[in-house]
Design a protein that fits this description.
- The protein has 17 helices and 35 strands.
- With 648 residues, the protein is α+β, with helices and mostly antiparallel strands.
- A hairpin with a 2-residue loop joins strand 14 and strand 15.
- The longest helix is centred in the C-terminal third of the chain and has 22 residues.
- The two termini are 36 Å apart.
- The model has no long low-confidence stretch (mean pLDDT 95).
Length: 648
Amino acid sequence: MSYLRFEKAVMTNLQESLRRELLRTNRSGAYSCSTIVDCNTRKYHGLLVVPVPELDDENHVLLSSLDVSVIQHGAEFNLGLHKYQGNNFSPKGHKYIREFDCDKVPTTLYRVGGVLLRKEVVFQHYEDRILLRYTLVDAHSATTLRFKPFLAFRSVRQFTHENSTASREYHPVTNGIRTCMYAGYPDLYMQFSKKNEFVFQPDWYRGVEYPKEQERGYASNEDLYVPGYFEMSIKKGESIVFAASTSAISTTGLKALFEEEVQERAPRDNFFHCLVNAAHQFHKREKEDRYLLAGYPWFKCRARDTFISLPGLTLAIDEQDYFELVMQTAMRGLREFMNGEPLSVSIYEIEQPDVLLWAVWAIQQYAKHAGKEACAERYGDLVDEIIDYIRDAKHPNLHPDDNGLLYSNGRDKAVTWMNSTANGRPVVPRSGYIVEFNALWYNALRFAAAMAADKGNAERAAELEEHAEVCKESFIDTFLNQYGYLLDYVDGAAMDWSVRPNMIFAAAFDYSPLNQDQKKSVLDVCTRELLTPKGLRSLSPKSGGYNPMYVGPQTQRDYAYHQGTAWPWLGGFYMEACLKLYRRTRLSFIERQMVGYEDEMNYHALGTISELFDGNPPFHGRGAMSFAMNVAEILRTLKLLEKYTYQK
């Protein structure tokens, strides 16, 4: 039986099928996304969603959906599905679905009377082109297919509504048409592998509703433009390929192209392969540069996310070459930032104070994978530059103090990963000596010292070790309290006694300012108060302000974002700390934790991990449908499990 397969009972039950989403990407920033029954429930959903750099840096929905109808003996059976206002669904094509399978490519099997029609979907790699193949598996009489495209031509953050500005103009191209609704947008090419008749029948479908936007407290209605429909006959056993793209294609090669794309796809036949597939979806290529997107459908490439997720998305699946490609691009951006030069890379938030520290951590993981010599040769100079940049107080918001710790001002602007804001101010104003910043700093100093020693620079190694010792003593004095856990931040007389997960890094990093007993104490507190089947909570239920449910309008969600919600990527560091402290005795415990993540493969966005989860049962997935740091840390945990399982 297939790993990601759903029978008729699930597909025809909209309460079950509408909450399951499917994401396909082309590794160049474009994507295709909807529910498994092809009913769009978010404004971010669409069959062809592409970046339009001439307009802005957002993605844009060009082709919202494509309805296919089966026609026999003059009777039309529409297989599409749209939700309209008043909880009305039309045309209810989901009732014809017999099964859905996406082990290799998403495949839907429809039965209409004696007709058995199979639909398969792939997104062409590195091209803004979605391909759909329709195969008439069985039919007892002459069959015609009718295709009706629903167009949007708008940003993923907006809606389109019926208007007189939208162009109805279209131009015939080989086996299809090209059209463009608004100036500034690229043409949309819709072509088939077979000759067909296009019937120009322009109309607006009004009041299409997106329930996911309603849940999030946003406007949720739009109108979609249908220019007409394509119609062609199909014989039993015949396949027809449809292509939607921003460029024309030779239609004679569409069938071969579809088959080539299918052959390139790796199967998603188990938990690990699903995560590898998800890891590849975060890849983004811009000319010679390589990036990692922070998540789908709305995140861009963010610096902190890049460095935290880079080892898990590459090294943990033995893809060292992509680590090096991404780091090559990121390294240029880091140096431009440190030199005060304009950025030539498409990486956001590179100025955040912990970004340089996470970059060193990522390089440290590379050293463990590729070897110290290779790491020193490739990244040794960068590590030294980062360390000196911070020690020389050149960062605008990361200041070294005489006590060896780093100070950052986060009172008025969020500076850590807990970056939600309300009314222009941080919901969690973490400021001063921030616990993970200084755990990262101690780790970076010791790692840089080890690299210097390996290179034979004993003087620099000793200097860095001395600095690290000062940092270590101050870290213990500043953060460790009498209850055995670490304060979240200390800013003068202000101390945050909330039990938060940021202390786990001090127990997980290779170089820790804590001794074994202190690490165990921190781990025990995290286990008792923060651990869930979906990672660590962002705040203990015993701490003031606990708000575990990420629901409601934007402001309500902002206040819950880091006040009790659970994050799988934090769980990755928790499990690393477990393995380092207790080694093989915790293997079965961590394997059970992995089960909580594997359950997610069949829910929310299939085969990947949501951005965050409610902190209370049933730990429902929320936020972005696919989040890079979560996928990365689960992959890294699986790699660590393998290491400790076979360790003598």
